[in-house]
Write a structure and sequence with these properties.
The chain has 495 residues and is an alpha+beta fold. The chain has helices spanning 3-22, 27-34, 38-45, 53-63, 80-87, 103-112, 115-130, 135-149, 155-167, 178-189, 226-241, 259-276, 279-290, 297-306, 311-326, 373-386, 436-441, 475-494, and strands at residues 192-194, 209-212, 217-220, 331-339, 344-353, 393-402, 408-417, 425-433, 452-455. The strands form two sheets. It has a six-stranded mixed β-sheet with strand order 5-4-8-7-6-9, sandwiched between helices. The protein has a three-stranded mixed β-sheet with strand order 1-3-2. Helix 10 (178-189) runs parallel beside helix 11 (226-241). It is globular.
């Protein structure tokens, strides 16, 4: 069935429903008039059936309309925005099936909404065209929503990782040797691992690996460390063991071609982390660390290194276990990328559980608050590199209180050099809302060694005076204040 045929069925069904309800007919009454079954009429209105000519001849007089009134050219004006929406393929880009939502139901809700909703939908379509919003943006946004809906914990993937470790008798000790995972790929799944496989192509040097399906070849970047190798092997094992057929061939997604591809990439990442940082021992180690009555950055890094994990792997695993097993559901994760040559900071990964928290990314080209530990630590790393200091990773904790709000977060940040991309640094931050749950689970939350700082979202939106870290004037605040002055003056004149 083509998309056009499906769309025609949906729009036809909506038009039939409009006519039936306008005439005050129930399904039973229309069934009696037309001789068509109630279930068949229901299927028509849901957009699942399109009547054949002989059934159309029975339906039209029952509704008291001519065939011309159901032609696309006579589309009811209230359905015009819906038709435009379907023709745009906007809804096709959304993974409705993953959330158990029928497309026809979404269209029905929109069609039955007030006229303002139709105008809003049309405006969204215009914005998407004018700003060239790409479909993969929807895929990644939908993935974040999907992860957040499940608190980033998936029991079926945990069970699969446990079964995998049992099947292949992986040792209990961590970190796992990458050579062991490489042998599994080669012996069990017929892979050919090519060392320095990306050397001939300079344009691929920012990637960690590329998979060539035609010959089951995994081309590796020459500078991958042991942890990166183990993680890449773990992802490839996930694609094979979980039978995730629709996948990207690159180590990181350059663009999402479909939601299934984006979701499968996330599943493979989860699976790899789950075998490299197995659930039970990891939970036990995290529990011991959280009970400490003093913040120990060195112990935090040592816990990460115990599993041979990168900061991203370590933090990803923390977001799996903290909500599920420690009741710490109010948290966020941010990954910043910093380019020292132009001092540009960008959020390229983001996760919010329970709700969208105040520290979040924005696409408005505004300047993130330099008081965030995420950025302050990157600036410190840049200065150390400029001074010739060789360092792998640095870690810092901070309590961040948002100006004008009561919310306060305990933030733990790790910063490191980007890899394998040169001349860039990254930081990953785990932020936990300081509430009763956090205070009961984390013994060191009130350690006086953890500094407390007042922060905001961006400099443009912050009204803090005499901020030494300010990177841009508070133009949003100033515009708001100017508007308030205008409103006050107008009220005086009216009075």
């Amino acid at each position: 069935m083509s998309a056009k045929t499906r769309n025609e069925k949906i729009l036809f069904g909506l038009r039939i429903k409009q006519l039936r309800t306008a005439k005050g007919l129930s399904f039973a009454e229309l069934s009696q008039r037309s001789g068509l079954s109630i279930s068949y009429l229901n299927e028509i209105e849901k957009g699942k059936k399109y009547p054949k000519p002989e059934k159309m001849e029975a339906l039209l007089p029952a509704l008291g309309v001519e065939a011309a009134e159901l032609a696309p050219s006579s589309m009811h004006k209230k359905l015009a925005p819906v038709a435009e929406l379907l023709e745009s393929n906007f809804l096709d880009d959304l993974p409705l099936d993953v959330f158990g939502i029928e497309l026809s139901k979404v269209v029905e809700i929109i069609a039955n909404a007030p006229a303002q909703v139709g105008a809003f939908i049309s405006a969204l379509l215009d914005i998407s065209r004018n700003y060239a919003l790409r479909e993969e943006n929807f895929y990644f946004a939908a993935l974040r929503s999907y992860l957040e809906l499940h608190y980033n914990y998936f029991q079926e993937l945990e069970d699969a990782a446990t079964a995998f470790c049992t099947r292949y008798q992986l040792p209990a000790a961590r970190p796992l040797e990458p050579e062991l995972l490489q042998r599994l790929l080669e012996d069990e799944y017929g892979y050919h691992v090519v060392e320095n496989g990306l050397d001939p192509w300079p344009e691929l040097q920012h990637l960690r690996s590329v998979y060539v399906p035609s010959r089951k070849a995994l081309l590796l970047h020459r500078n991958l460390g042991r942890t990166q190798r183990a993680f890449q092997f773990g992802k490839e094992l996930a694609f094979q063991y979980l039978q995730l057929r629709e996948r990207a061939v690159t180590s990181s997604l350059l663009r999402g071609r479909s939601f299934e591809e984006v979701l499968n990439h996330a599943k493979a990442t989860y699976f790899s982390d789950a075998i490299l940082l197995p659930l039970k021992p990891f939970m036990e180690d995290v529990a011991i660390f959280l009970r400490k009555d003093r913040w120990e950055g060195g112990a935090f890094l040592e816990l990460m290194k115990r599993y041979g994990a990168t900061p991203e792997m370590f933090y990803h695993r923390l977001t799996n276990v903290l909500p599920r097993f420690f009741g710490l559901e109010q948290l966020f994760f941010l990954r910043f990328v910093h380019t020292p040559t132009n001092n540009h900071f960008e959020v390229d990964r983001e996760l919010h559980l329970s709700r969208r928290h105040r520290p979040h990314g924005n696409g408005l080209s505004e300047h993130y608050c330099r008081r965030w530990v995420s950025i302050a630590l990157l600036e410190d790393l840049q200065h150390m590199q400029a001074d010739g200091v060789s360092i792998d990773t640095i870690v810092r904790a901070q309590r961040s209180r948002f100006i004008g709000h009561e919310e306060e977060y305990l933030c733990i940040t790790i910063a490191r050099s980007a890899y394998p991309a040169p001349h860039r640094n990254v930081s990953v931050t785990l932020g936990l809302l300081l509430n009763d749950d956090t205070r009961s689970q984390i013994g060191f939350w009130h350690d006086p060694a953890i500094p407390m700082r007042e922060v905001h979202t961006t400099c443009e939106r912050c009204h803090l005076q005499d901020c030494a870290e300010r990177a841009a004037p508070p133009i949003v605040v100033e515009k708001r204040q100017q508007f308030q002055r205008i409103q006050s003056r107008l009220m005086e004149l009216e009075g």
